[in-house]
């Protein structure tokens, strides 16, 4: 299949970027990133500068991929990261527009690579259970019913890629932050710190320059792991109960 | 000159670790605050070690080449983590886990280390539960288990098919907490390019800031490498694209011994290669072998028909299928260890019975499991268990609940629906049992340099059992290193903070810079990637699933020639002092060349077949591995020489608690 690729090229954080067009022959069995590998090999053959993009596990779990394909984070297929997207979902003669995740809190570093360290700082603000190594009781002394465990798992399945932010018209990080708040709030182990946790994480989110949530649910639609917006509602409840509840710090 | 001293504590096997813990020198809290530790790598081993050491009060600096510590490749582990909890009341115990691991490793691991691993395994589960890892649960709220290959108990804890992800996020969150408390200084997007030795002790690293290209010095009282395995030397593997050997290899160039480098694990159930552009292989978890049955057609004409697409696998009647694992190994069936299952798949494909276009694939079939679960579900619901349509739909749901995400990955990659048609699978490089030689303290032959997790060699012998990598990574990081590091640091309490102004740092920086410049200056015609692919093929062909002396000699020669060409003809675009992924790849591939050579040397010297190392010259009449305990019951620790052949040092392995037997899964 013959493709026309319009790819965002930007040398560095402070330089101005622009789209550049390439034509490439691909096969339907290739993954999207393998298609970019082939492009880069071609560019290198011509002694050019290959397109920088972030990638690692290539099996949809590390969360490194950070590109918007034809206007959608991770491309046209639902529940699919860019690395798991295959070229059989495109047609011969297609033009594919590839650009980085765009958000104020995710500055572009080079081409399709963005800085998502703001996500780390949100977790550092409170996305954990404070237990030192060696302090834990026997695993089966904490019983967790299957439903809670399932809900916690569903929220914990977030891979931290940032597609939710890229998809959101306000570049809000609510889905990401709420997934962590919900994961830990569903479990008995996480309940002790729940009030402190949500307050701190929300404050950090604001500090990083993420926008507010206006309930468009674009985040859920483009999340490759199907993280539900129910988590946002859960986080809002946690937040309100922590600000008006009796159990304050 | 390297001297190997494993420093195994005295006493009976079951007492060693307990005694060690109560007698190892401690560092007082006020002194811990003065001592700095560098931890390179933030996977399960690195993140858990960095967090635990920081909790103890040490000043920790942690490094990852990723943009975030959460992206380390531990995250991709699917199936589970073993622990000797005996929650199932099925006869499990610390000794049994120890025994299974030693036996599974084909008697090439160190008894004392493995027993310690089995002892702390239960603590890991407790710790992870307390952190909020959402393990699978039974209806009553207790933790659920499943079985893995090579064992006859159910001791594997899991979080759907994403156990590695959940455990890593747990460790990442513990690490994040220590970062926020200021106890860990985190360096993202930094790659270690050398270890710095001062007066014979590891006192720091040279790292490249991958964003700016700056070459930086980082100092500490000791250095911990948690940098994973080297499976990517084969180019195509289940490792992540950026996984590499460089940190460990740089240490071995400074004199750290590399142990058993030829022990590589080939995982039997991966999605087969589909084209020459392929960049990596995807694993289908071993847990699938709990319910999936492996087969190929008995008749060649069926094989041909399937390859041509004239017949579907479901068209082949039961009587014309060869469930070869069940046939050859009735006791363990589809759950034989990975090395055995991989070789069996190679054998049937070599016979010409592979079931895809390339002839390199076998079926993994769930149809029986779907019907079995469906029937059970139907009877428990009071429905008719003979209603095939209903049973199939209920069974599909049950299988989906267990393996849903794996089936989804499979369908995404291949376009086939594994609920309806069997998966096609083939073995691929997955894990490396070999690694930096460490003593009981997890210290390498370089004083003050520790290696944990997959980066060391110590626990899995010649073959690792499923669900044991996560166990070992977390055991080392949470429960072993925090004690054993005291054996070194307790003697350093009077050592002032190490300065990066020392001449050793300056010299190491210069050397790194020169190395990068000389690579950049080659300006040849071939991409780094093309060299890596060719290197990988040489390794796979001559040092892969089966090996022989002629092949290994030829492979080594080809490797040397390719390396020569690399240094003459590689082309790296861009500049040194900027974000340059091609340069990163080049330094890693350069190190893979030397490691690959050492693997060939090690494989050639080990004149026996054991675990993942199968020498064609050493097999029984029915093609099973023939071990040579008399001559090879030792760890081969290699001292790399930049000029001339590597030098072999042997650590004899003494088995006092298990009897060395021919591993039989029949």
Radius of gyration of chain A: 20 Å
What is the averaged pLDDT score of chain A?
A: 96
Work out the number of β strands of chain B: 19
Number of domains of chain A: 2
Approximate helicity band of chain A: 25-40%
Low-confidence stretches of chain B: none
Shape of chain A: elongated
Mass-distribution shape of chain B? globular
According to CATH, the fold-level topology of the largest domain in chain A is Fumarate Reductase Iron-sulfur Protein, Chain B, domain 2
Strand content of chain A: 5-15%
**Major beta sheet summary of chain B:** 5 strands, parallel
CATH homology superfamily name of the largest domain in chain A: Alpha-helical ferredoxin
Describe the protein's architecture and organization.
The complex is a heterodimer of chains A (249) and B (666). Chain A has 249 residues and is of the alpha+beta class. Chain A has 2 domains: 2-110, Beta-grasp domain (Ubiquitin-like (UB roll)); 117-244, Alpha-helical ferredoxin (Fumarate Reductase Iron-sulfur Protein, Chain B, domain 2, Orthogonal Bundle). Helices cover 37% and strands 13% of the residues of chain A. In chain B, a hairpin with a 7-residue loop joins strand 18 (634-639) and strand 19 (647-652). The mean pLDDT of chain B is 96. In chain B, helix 3 (44-56) runs parallel beside helix 13 (469-489), helix 11 crosses helix 12 and helix 15 packs parallel to helix 17. Among the domains of chain B are: 270-429, Flavocytochrome C3, Chain A, domain 1, CATH 3.90.700.10; 503-630, Up-down Bundle (Methane Monooxygenase Hydroxylase, Chain G, domain 1), CATH 1.20.58.100. Chain B is 39% helix and 14% strand. Chain B is built from 18 helices and 19 strands. Classes of the chains: A alpha+beta (249), B alpha+beta (666).
């Amino acid at each position: 299949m013959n493709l026309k690729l319009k790819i965002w090229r930007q040398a560095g954080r402070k330089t101005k970027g622009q789209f550049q067009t390439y034509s490439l022959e691909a096969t339907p069995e290739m993954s999207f990133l393998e298609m970019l590998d082939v492009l880069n090999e071609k560019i290198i053959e011509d002694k050019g500068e290959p397109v920088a993009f972030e990638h690692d596990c290539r099996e949809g779990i590390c969360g490194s991929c950070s590109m918007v394909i034809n206007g959608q984070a991770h491309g046209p297929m639902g529940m699919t990261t860019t690395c798991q997207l295959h070229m059989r979902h495109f047609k011969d003669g297609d033009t594919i527009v590839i650009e980085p995740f765009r958000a104020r809190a995710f500055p572009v570093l080079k081409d399709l690579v963005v800085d998502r360290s703001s996500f780390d700082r949100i977790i550092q603000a409170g996305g954990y259970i404070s237990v030192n190594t060696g302090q834990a009781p026997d695993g089966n002394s904490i019983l967790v019913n299957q439903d809670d465990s399932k809900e916690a798992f569903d929220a914990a399945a977030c891979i931290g890629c940032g597609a939710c932010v890229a998809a959101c018209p306000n570049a809000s990080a609510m889905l990401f932050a709420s997934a962590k708040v919900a994961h830990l709030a569903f479990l008995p182990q996480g309940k002790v710190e729940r009030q402190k946790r949500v307050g701190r994480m929300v404050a950090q989110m604001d500090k990083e320059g993420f926008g507010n949530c206006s309930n468009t649910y674009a985040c859920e639609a483009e999340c490759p792991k199907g993280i539900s917006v129910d988590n946002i509602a859960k986080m809002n409840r946690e937040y309100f109960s922590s600000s008006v509840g009796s159990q304050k710090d | 000159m390297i001297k190997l001293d494993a420093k195994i504590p005295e006493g009976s096997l079951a007492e060693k670790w307990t005694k060690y813990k109560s007698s190892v020198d401690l560092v007082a809290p006020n002194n811990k605050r003065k001592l700095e530790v560098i931890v390179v790598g933030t996977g399960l081993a690195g993140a858990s070690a960095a967090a635990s050491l920081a909790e103890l009060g040490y000043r920790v600096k942690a490094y990852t080449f990723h943009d975030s510590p959460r992206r380390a490749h531990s995250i991709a582990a699917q199936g589970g983590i073993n622990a000797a909890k005996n929650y199932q009341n099925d006869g499990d115990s610390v000794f049994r886990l120890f025994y299974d691991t030693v036996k599974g490793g084909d008697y090439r691991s160190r008894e004392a280390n493995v027993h310690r691993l089995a002892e702390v395994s239960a603590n890991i589960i407790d710790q992870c539960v307390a952190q909020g890892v959402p393990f699978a649960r039974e209806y009553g709220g207790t933790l659920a288990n499943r079985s893995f290959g090579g064992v006859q108990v159910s001791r594997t804890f899991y979080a759907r098919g994403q156990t590695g992800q959940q455990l890593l996020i747990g460790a990442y969150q513990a690490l994040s907490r220590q970062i926020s408390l200021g106890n860990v200084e985190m360096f993202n997007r930094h790659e270690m390019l050398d270890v710095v030795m001062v007066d014979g002790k590891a006192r720091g690293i040279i790292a490249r800031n991958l964003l700016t290209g700056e070459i930086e010095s980082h100092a500490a009282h000791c250095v911990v490498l948690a940098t994973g395995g080297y499976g990517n030397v084969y180019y195509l593997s289940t490792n992540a694209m950026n996984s590499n050997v460089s940190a460990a290899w740089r240490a071995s160039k400074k004199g750290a011994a590399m142990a058993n480098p030829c022990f590589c694990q080939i995982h039997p159930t991966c999605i087969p290669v589909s084209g020459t552009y392929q960049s990596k292989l995807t694993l289908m978890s071993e847990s699938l072998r709990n319910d999936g049955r492996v087969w190929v057609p008995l008749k060649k004409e069926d094989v041909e028909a399937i390859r041509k697409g004239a017949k579907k696998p479901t068209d082949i009647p039961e009587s014309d299928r060869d469930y070869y694992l069940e046939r050859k190994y009735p006791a363990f069936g589809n759950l034989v260890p990975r090395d055995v299952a991989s070789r069996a798949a190679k054998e049937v494909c070599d016979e010409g019975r592979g079931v895809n276009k390339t002839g390199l694939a076998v079926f993994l079939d769930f149809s029986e499991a779907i019907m079995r679960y469906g029937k059970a579900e139907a009877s428990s619901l009071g429905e008719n268990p003979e209603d095939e349509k209903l049973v199939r739909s209920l069974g599909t749901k049950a299988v989906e609940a267990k393996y849903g995400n794996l089936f989804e990955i499979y369908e995404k990659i291949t376009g086939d629906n594994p609920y309806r048609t069997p998966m096609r699978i083939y073995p691929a490089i997955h894990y490396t049992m070999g690694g930096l030689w460490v003593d009981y303290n997890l210290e390498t032959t370089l004083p003050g340099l520790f290696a944990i997790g997959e980066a060391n060699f110590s626990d899995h012998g010649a073959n690792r059992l499923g669900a044991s990598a996560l166990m070992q990574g977390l055991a080392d990081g949470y429960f072993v290193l925090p004690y054993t590091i005291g054996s070194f640091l307790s003697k350093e309490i009077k050592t002032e903070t190490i300065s990066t102004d020392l001449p050793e740092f300056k010299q190491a920086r210069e050397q790194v810079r020169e190395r990068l410049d000389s690579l950049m200056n080659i300006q040849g015609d071939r991409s780094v990637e093309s060299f890596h692919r060719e290197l990988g093929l040489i390794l796979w062909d001559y040092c892969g699933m089966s090996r022989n002396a002629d092949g290994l000699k030829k492979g080594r020669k080809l490797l040397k020639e390719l390396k020569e060409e690399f240094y003459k003809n590689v082309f790296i675009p861009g500049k040194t002092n900027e974000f340059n992924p091609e340069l990163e790849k080049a330094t890693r591939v350069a190190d893979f060349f030397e490691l690959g050579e050492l693997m060939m040397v090690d494989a050639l010297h080990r004149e026996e077949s054991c675990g993942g190392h199968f020498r064609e010259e050493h097999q029984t009449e029915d093609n099973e591995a023939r071990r040579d305990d008399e001559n090879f019951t030792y760890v081969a620790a290699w001292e790399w020489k930049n000029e001339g052949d590597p030098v072999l040092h042997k650590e004899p392995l003494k088995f006092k608690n298990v009897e060395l037997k021919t591993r039989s899964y029949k």
